[in-house]
Amino acid sequence: MVIRLDEIEFAQKLVQTPSLSGSEGAVADLVEDAMNALGFRDVYRDALGNVVGFVGPQAETTALLFDAHMDVVPVAGEWQMNPFGGKIVDGRLYGRGSTDMKGALAAAICGAAAAAKSGRLVRQVAVSATVLEESLECAALGAVVEQVKPEQVVICEPSNLTIKLGQKGRAEILLTIEGIPAHAAFPDRGKSPIQLAAKALDALEKIEFPEDPFIGKAILVATDIISDPYPSISLIPQQVTVRFDRRTIPGETEDGILNQILNALQIIDDQAFSLSVTRDTVQTYTGKVIEAPRIFAAWKVERDIPLVKAAQAAVIAAGRKPQFGFWGFCTNGSETAGKRKIPTIGLGPGIEDDAHIADESISVEELRQAKIVYEQLILNLATD
Fold it and tell me: Model pTM?
């Protein structure tokens, strides 16, 4: 039996259900039940715990995939509202994940159900509720893409319903600096990796990184530094490791990124420095373990592709003026557009700056508009 489920009510239920990365099972249950109740077909949960459902006639490929992740970041800061209350005050739904991105997940599911109810769909459309995006983006969506085979993708991260045409990528890089240990009372008998690290940081500040006319300039930011051994008492340490966050632009490669840094360091010491991209191992709520490198490609699409034109018309149908932009942060779009070259846009309710903050909230009106946008986008791309 197909039921009516309001996107606001559903978003409240999702927010009221905690789902840190690796603990999304309860939200996955809600999503699966909602998809089945709303008339989705072939709803399934994969080995990683992603939940996927389809509308429209069954096909080998999928005309359009909407992706929204189920996990949220931990509650931090001083909250005035209950982070898991799902309370609506002055037209805003409050709670962890309301903006990032349970509101969008509810809107996508309800929008797809509404499009299917029209009876006009002649192509297959899917919605995925993915895991672990906050802890290791892209890996989980990759498994969905392998099964769903989407021709076009909408990443539903918050964009204030601006059509995002791209994003910077991200690489997490470790710079290891080898020294020669010695007693701190006799520093001339050793080689300090700390001093080498200081020289390296100064040299890296002077690098001219590439720039994209739309997305902007690539950047390199040091995020932590630690010696080995730590603490190193009365001892020049053997080694220092500096972690960097490198924001990338389209066209950059892993080799190119690492070589640019190493080349800048060779004049300091041609033996002391080595680089690597970090790898992380995470476990899903199903018990499945994922290991992947922390390097995620930048991407962009042109404004004249069919997906962008259809999205523009959908935004107009929802009573809004279309706007375009790009994300400065990394999303699952790195998997679809950056790695697999599938036409992808970002389009979601909520203001980007409201993600991950205390008293996170989202406009109820914008949630309703997002549902209409998603419904219209499907009708634009999956009907005669």
Answer: 0.93
